[in-house]
Design goal:
Strand order of the largest sheet: 1-2
Shape: globular
Order of helices and strands: HEEHHHHEHHHHHHHHHHHEH
Distance between the termini: 60 Å
Radius of gyration: 21 Å
Strand content: under 5%
Oligomer: single chain
Number of helices: 17
Length: 349
């Protein structure tokens, strides 16, 4: 059995039934959700508890903004920060670098700067390991956020399906660590993993969040006082929960919504969406065609802000190298499609 077949902590209801996707009931989903957030099991559940405590806690600045500091200007700034800045950074850092190693930083300094360019919201471990599994089993049983299993299956996936297994051998654990080594995460040794059930060390994870949040609150406060700070942290709350809806929508809500000439990936249900594409560079069908690429916006209308950032940092010397598959896409997919279109005779009048 390959490592990715067993690396995630399988939910109590299982991934499959008789080799087909098992779609749990709402009751099963919520029971599993609260079991994996049970504070009476603090060691096994610490990472999910910590992440959800942070995300729910961001509702405090959101309420403070709405109650005490609301203005249309700050609302617009919060919208841009939430949808574009946080969304694009998630693509740059978590998706293209941390998971797919689509580019390489010049040194650890630039990596650390990039990692902390925004308010820290998602631990690398939660995203990276499960995303490798997602690409292996996309829209199949075992996909940790399989859109065919419904909205809540995806929305709650970080707790339900994205934690790593608690019984990995030492050799398997070392291989899991190698998936995260390049990100700068402070990792547990094997004894620490057996104690806490995670790769990331609890103390250093909490310290990283504390320093990151303190820095960004202070920075926003110095620029615009408490009003700007609570507006930006409140916007982060919106993104933290909004991003959980992406994979469900990005895979057609479990239906085949692929369009000829737009979605060239035929292996799964991933589609290119205008909103996710323009605000975060997440042209998802293109990404599934070339997951290791630093660019996903291949066609003229597909603005890719994440790629613009990567390309710009490469020109400045902060990024040493990257992989770009635009020429491959045009040669292998776009040009053959255009040639087929030109070969179709025009309808008779």
């Amino acid at each position: 059995m390959a490592l990715l077949d067993r690396v995630l902590d399988e939910p109590s209801y299982g991934w499959r039934s008789q080799d087909a996707l098992y779609v749990p009931s709402s009751r099963e989903l919520w029971r599993e959700f609260f079991r994996k957030l049970d504070p009476r099991r603090p060691r096994q559940n610490w990472l999910s508890l910590f992440t959800w405590t942070c995300h729910v806690g961001l509702a405090v600045p959101l309420v403070l903004f709405a109650r005490d500091y609301f203005s249309w200007k700050l609302l617009a700034l919060g919208f841009v920060y939430s949808m574009i800045v946080l969304g694009t950074h998630g693509t740059i850092w978590l998706h293209r670098y941390s998971t797919h190693k689509a580019y390489r930083f010049r040194n650890a300094f630039f990596r650390t700067v990039c990692r902390n360019l925004v308010i820290k919201l998602i631990p690398e471990e939660t995203y990276v390991i499960s995303h490798h599994v997602h690409h292996k089993y996309s829209d199949l049983p075992g996909d940790p956020y399989n859109a065919k299993a419904g909205f809540w299956y995806c929305f709650l996936a970080d707790v339900l399906h994205q934690g790593i297994a608690k019984d990995l051998s030492e050799a398997d654990y070392d291989r899991v660590c190698s998936m995260l080594k390049h990100t700068g995460v402070h990792m547990n040794d094997y004894a620490g993993y057996q104690r806490w059930g995670t790769v990331c060390n609890p103390l250093f994870t909490v310290l990283h969040y504390a320093l990151n949040w303190s820095f960004w609150y202070a920075a926003f406060f110095l620029i615009g006082g408490h009003a700007l700070a609570v507006a930006m942290f409140g916007a982060a709350c919106v993104w933290a929960f909004g991003v959980r809806t992406f994979n469900f929508a990005g895979h057609g809500s479990g239906k085949d919504l692929r369009r000829e000439g737009e979605d060239f990936n035929t292996e799964d249900l991933a589609i290119n969406q205008l909103w996710a594409g323009y605000v975060a560079g997440e042209w998802h069908s293109n990404h599934h065609l070339y997951p290791g690429g630093a660019r996903a916006g291949f066609q003229r209308h597909q603005l890719d802000l994440a790629w613009i950032f990567i390309w710009s940092w490469a020109r400045l010397g902060a990024i040493a190298s990257y992989r770009d598959f635009k020429a491959d896409f045009e040669r292998d997919h776009l040009q053959p499609y255009l040639e087929r279109q030109r070969a179709v005779p025009a309808p008779a009048e």
